[in-house]
């Protein structure tokens, strides 16, 4: 355990600590969920799939929750102005973006919020643009609400994913394209979009009257040397034509607490959305949860040092993964991780079919990864590794994957 002093409190975290998450209702580790997601008999896969971390959250978060827990009355709770203040201060400090208090609405999650936004700002039969391969609940929300997906596939240029701007120009002009979902940073390809890329994206969408929904849930998980630019911070015009979403849930491992924020600077959009929130029964400012707000507030106010240390740990984990896979399995490419803790690897050049790649990983290595084709058909043969786990777990998984592919050989 580290005891080094760190910005005002004891550095009491140890990302190498292995915590048994079985029998805690963890979606990532629960055998029943593994069988449902990966098939019968797969309850013992080592899980590096769904995007939460196998680390304890920062101690100040636990302390804040314990303090409130001790009160023993958990009745209906109004939105906490201190939560807004903590969020505002965090974004100003970390992202140099001045969010106004009035712009903030809360939601129990960004996935639910995506659905609400689709429902409010498009009609059945309308089209919604996504940049594949991308976080698959976007597609599920679009289809589930009776809208149509318009794909603007990313392209790989010199080993790095880029937006296909010409294709974006063309497709935002299609009739009935109402919303474009921006995943920034991008899950699963790990890009932190530059200001110039975001400017091009925003200009094209706005020119074609397409509302931008910027999902920035991973915006605090930025590798050293990269800088996240909040979409709405770029200009008043961008802020006015968009809704953005953020949360402390990925950053500080609080996803089970169901709390996220929507930022809607445009008064008309915010009022329309607020009325819709009320008709859904969640209240005009939305709703999160009692403990979600307390936890996020403590994290934003007191856990910055924990996050800075986490980012270094994640970077080391990533270097280990990339080095091992590329050295031991020549032909496999692991894309540079600019942001998120989700590493994206291309197994296609091994000469195996995407189905065989999945089979080697599940039956051979006994590891659970998010398979590339879940993110879109251009993800086939790719795999997403969640590297937010103690190094020993990562090593076990990577060694098993390497051994399983070596056994099968090149084709
Ligand atoms: C891009 C993106 N958006 C949203 C979510 C989930 O958001 P929430 O748990 O707030 O619904 C994830 C989780 O992996 C994600 O990667």
In short:
By secondary structure, the chain is of the alpha/beta class. The chain is built from 14 helices and 17 strands. Strand 7 and strand 8 form a beta hairpin.
Describe the structure in your own words.
With 411 residues, this protein is α/β, with parallel strands linked by helices. It folds into 2 domains: 5-57 and 304-408, Alpha-Beta Complex (Aspartate Aminotransferase, domain 1); 63-302, Aspartate Aminotransferase, domain 2 (3-Layer(aba) Sandwich), CATH 3.40.640.10. 40% of the residues lie in helices and 15% in strands. The protein contains 14 helices and 17 strands. The chain has helices at 31-38, 59-69, 81-95, 110-121, 137-144, 165-172, 195-207, 236-240, 249-252, 267-279, 290-302, 304-328, 354-365, 391-408, and strands at residues 5-6, 9-10, 46-47, 104-107, 127-130, 148-151, 155-157, 160-162, 177-183, 211-215, 242-246, 260-263, 333-334, 342-346, 367-368, 370-371, 382-386. The strands form 5 sheets. Strands 4-12-11-10-9-5-6 form a 7-stranded mixed β-sheet, with helices on both faces. It has a 4-stranded antiparallel β-sheet with strand order 13-14-17-16, with helices on one face. Strand 7 (155-157) and strand 8 (160-162) form a beta hairpin. Helix 4 (110-121) packs parallel to helix 5 (137-144), helix 12 (304-328) runs parallel beside helix 14 and helix 13 crosses helix 14 (391-408). The relative contact order is 0.16. The structure holds pyridoxal-5'-phosphate. Pyridoxal-5'-phosphate is lined by residues 51, 109-111, 135, 183, 187, 215, 217, 247, 249, 255, 260.
């Amino acid at each position: 355990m580290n005891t080094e002093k760190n910005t005002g409190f004891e550095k009491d975290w140890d990302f190498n600590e292995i915590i048994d998450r079985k029998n805690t209702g963890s979606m990532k580790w629960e055998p029943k969920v593994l069988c449902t997601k990966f098939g019968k008999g797969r309850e013992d896969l080592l899980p590096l799939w769904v995007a939460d971390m196998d680390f304890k959250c920062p101690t100040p978060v636990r302390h804040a929750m314990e303090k409130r827990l001790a009160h023993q009355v958990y009745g209906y709770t109004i939105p906490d102005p201190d939560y807004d203040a903590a969020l505002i201060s965090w974004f100003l400090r970390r992202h140099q973006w001045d969010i106004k208090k009035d712009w903030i609405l809360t939601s129990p999650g960004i996935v639910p919020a995506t659905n609400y936004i689709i429902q409010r700002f498009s009609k059945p039969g309308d089209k919604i643009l996504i940049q594949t391969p991308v976080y698959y609940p976007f597609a599920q929300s679009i289809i589930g609400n009776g809208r149509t997906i318009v794909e603007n596939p990313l392209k790989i240029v010199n080993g790095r994913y880029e937006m296909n701007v010409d294709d974006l120009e063309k497709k935002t002009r299609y009739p009935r394209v109402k919303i474009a979902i921006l995943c920034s940073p991008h899950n699963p390809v790990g890009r932190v979009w530059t200001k110039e890329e975001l400017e091009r994206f925003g200009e094209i969408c706005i020119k074609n009257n397409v509302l931008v929904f910027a999902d920035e849930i991973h915006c605090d998980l930025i590798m050293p040397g990269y800088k996240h630019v909040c979409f709405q911070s770029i200009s008043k015009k961008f802020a006015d034509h968009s809704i953005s979403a953020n949360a402390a849930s990925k950053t500080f491992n609080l996803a089970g607490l169901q709390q996220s924020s929507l930022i809607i600077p445009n008064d008309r959009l915010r009022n329309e959305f607020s009325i819709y929130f009320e008709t859904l029964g969640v209240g005009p400012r939305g709703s999160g949860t009692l403990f979600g707000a307390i936890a996020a507030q403590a994290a934003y106010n007191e856990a910055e040092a924990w996050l800075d240390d986490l980012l270094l740990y994640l970077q080391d984990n990533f270097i280990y993964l990339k080095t091992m896979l590329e050295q031991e399995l020549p032909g496999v490419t692991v894309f540079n991780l600019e942001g998120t803790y989700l590493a994206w690897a291309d197994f296609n050049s091994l000469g195996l079919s995407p189905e065989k790649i999945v089979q080697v990983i599940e039956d051979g290595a006994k590891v659970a990864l998010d398979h590339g084709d879940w993110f879109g058909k251009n993800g086939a043969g790719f795999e997403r590794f969640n590297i937010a786990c103690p190094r020993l777990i990562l090593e076990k998984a990577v060694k098993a994957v390497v051994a399983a592919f070596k056994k099968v050989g090149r084709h």
